[in-house]
Amino acid sequence: MLRPTVGSIEERDEEQEDDEELRDGGVPFFVNRGGLPVDEETWERMWRHVARIHPEGEAMGKGLRGAADLPKIPIPSVPTYHPTTSIPQRLEAIQKYIRDLQYNHTGTQFFEIKKSRPLTALMDIAKEMTREVLPIKCLEAVILAIYLTTNLPGVERFPLSFKTQFSGNHFYHIVLGVHCGGRFGALGISRRDDLMFKHLEFRTLADLVQEFQGAYRGYWHTLRKVKIGQYVSHDVHSVEQIEWKHSVLDVDRLPKEELRRELERHTRDMRLKIGKAAPPSPTKDRRNSMGSPLRGPGSPMRRISHIERRPSAEKKVLEKKPPTDLNGYQIRV
Fold this sequence. Notes:
With 333 residues, the chain is α+β, with helices and mostly antiparallel strands. It has helices spanning 9-18, 40-53, 58-65, 87-101, 119-132, 138-148, 205-218, 256-274, 284-290, 306-309, 312-319, 323-332, and strands at 23-24, 27-28, 30-31, 108-109, 156-166, 169-180, 183-187, 198-202, 222-228, 247-250. It is built from 12 helices and 10 strands. A 6-stranded antiparallel sheet has the order 8-7-6-5-9-10, sandwiched between helices. A two-stranded antiparallel sheet has the order 1-2. Strands 3-4 form a two-stranded parallel sheet.
């Protein structure tokens, strides 16, 4: 169980926002920290939690665990594309795959996501998601969407988080914002259909945020804060961390026009990041251990010969021969 944090109300609220992936509808939930397959302790804890929150209590769990004729669950496949498939169609296919995994209602998040981990480690978790094909929550969906959009040319991705209030309680949600061809959209998962996928049709980031704000309003939620990160690197082996909250905006305190200006400023900041130099690549040992999921079977690893590694100045000395030596060599032949 999550323990209460000692400190002021402001400190506790800030820590809750940093750990928003550990909250499901404003209520803390368990995280599977033992990896997969799930160990016995985590498995039993999950069933006890389900028995506490389900209307049928323990009877529901016993009925499921003792059943031998449960229907077979279809296993979705990672989307593949024809070369002529458009970017919007590819994004829709990715969203369908995420949705087919289904939202996780068990109260236990199966994959542990630490926001401070480097991108390459988070991408390894995303690959594990595609292997295990388990239900996911919103933060897991963002990591998976980043992985599945890595090879989409011209598509920039950034985290987009929301803090809302309803009936005195705070709720947290996150999606992956996408930008391509001068239009914004979003990928993700939620209990609500209008709080995850957004088509690539919004002219500005402000329009996208207002779309989510209107959806929340339909559920009587008041949008309090929006956190927007920077563009995420397309290098799955990058050791940089995802910048989750480059801009934190108090929506309820900002006038509509000022909010729009702040979102336009953030859009400019994201564009500037594209031109910045990438962080150092992983070491040789790290590259060898990770491999390359982007390299197809027809693209073998390039071998670097000793000659290629030799400094260019030395190579020139070896290749250049005096005319006398050449003539002497010709005579000897």
